[in-house]
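User: Last request for today: this protein with NAP, please.
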Amino acid sequence: MTPGLAVIIVGEDPASRIYVRNKIRAAEDVGVISRLFEFPSEAPPESVLGLIDSLNDNPLIHGILVQLPLPPQFNIYSVLHRILPAKDVDGFHLYNVGGLVVGERVFSPCTPYGVMKLLEHEGISVAGQNVVVVGASNIVGKPMALMVMREDATVSVCHAKTRDLAQFTILADILVVAAGVPGLIVQQMVKSGAVVIDVGINRLASGQIVGDVDFESVRQKAAYITPVPGGVGPMTVTMLIANTIQSTEHKADLIDWDAGSISGPMRSLYSHA
Ligand code: NAP
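Assistant: Here's the final one, the structure of the complex with NAP:
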């Protein structure tokens, strides 16, 4: 069974277009068939919801991704929750979010999942470590905190209203920064020998892309540091592809298991029936 990924984009946001292009290119590189569905920014939500319904029912599509942000006429959650959890390769459906909390996940959100894989690849264990996550969004900060907590880290989550951010960051053995504020983390906020993961992607007025960490100063103190661009960005795309392949294999397993039809506890995740 060839993995199939559907990517939906609404509007003309230039950064979103670049992200979508990168995802489609990465899919094609590894033989995942991708289908791009484009809508104008004034598209009625019903048209996107109707497409999601038909993709949910399409057996050739194993992953559905809606590129965020969406234009203001959309309720993001009603769109994300319309995707069947078993095809929710971005891991944003309530079912997958709940699974992350209780440890029964189907798909993990791609960016924090990519950070976990990056740490694993470098042989950096999070168990017993002080992990500080700067940023508490639903797509990065919160799932990141849950993932490291599940791996037995001691976790602090900071956000825009955190008083004296440095008093938290200086304690971090592993510092994950996802605030969207260029230069937020400077050398004196980081402990010597810390692992620093920069999730931020910010475009400066000059056009330069930078993270949230002052890379040149912090690299002199950190044991590990991820660059921007590079680092976490490509990992996010990679985990999207991994989730799509996992979805395909899981569906194939279920079909084999029941001589041709999907059944068992996952059935309701694959079908509205
Ligand atoms: P978001 O939804 O805007 O959330 C930003 C979070 O950072 C919020 O929790 C906010 O706090 C917090 N924050 C803002 N300013 C802060 C400050 N000065 N000090 C401490 N915390 C602060 O953003 P997001 O979607 O999570 O994305 C965060 C960054 O990661 C962006 O640069 C984005 O482009 C990047 N990103 C990268 C990837 C990748 O693949 N590398 C993927 C997704 C996002 P409040 O909750 O109090 O508002």
